[in-house]
Design a protein that fits this description.
InterPro entries: Tnp_DDE_dom. This is Transposase DDE domain-containing protein. It holds the Pfam family DDE_Tnp_1_2. With 106 residues, the chain is mainly alpha-helical. It contains five helices and two strands; from the N terminus they run αβαβααα. The protein has a two-stranded parallel sheet with strand order 1-2. The chain is elongated.
């Protein structure tokens, strides 16, 4: 099985998409030290503009919207279940419920 680093164009281990609130030089330096490509757009007040992969950044938005839909369920938003297996079971049920609602609406 090929290593993840060999499959990336830049030779990095992976990418970390985050919103511009995480645009700090210290965070970028930490990610560079760990060989992770930051997909973080630069803030508007930066002197030097930083390029980022827009396709990966759009996928981050999809993931955030999915978490927003899952947090509609109160048990997931407050994490009543202290045991990880029961919590993830609830996450699976909520995801299946959301998926069924989506499938039958289409």
């Amino acid at each position: 099985m090929p290593d993840r680093a060999s499959s990336c164009r830049s030779g990095r281990r992976g990418a970390l998409p985050a919103d511009e609130g995480y645009d700090a030089d210290a965070i970028r330096a930490y990610l560079a030290k760990r060989n992770i490509n930051p997909v973080i757009p630069g803030r508007s007040n930066r002197w030097v503009k930083i390029e980022h992969n827009r396709t990966l950044y759009k996928q981050r938005n999809r993931v955030e919207r999915m978490f927003g839909h899952l947090k509609i369920n109160r048990a997931i938003a407050t994490r009543y279940h202290q045991i990880a297996s029961s919590f993830f079971g609830k996450v699976h049920l909520a995801t299946a419920r959301y998926w069924l609602k989506f499938v039958y609406a289409a």
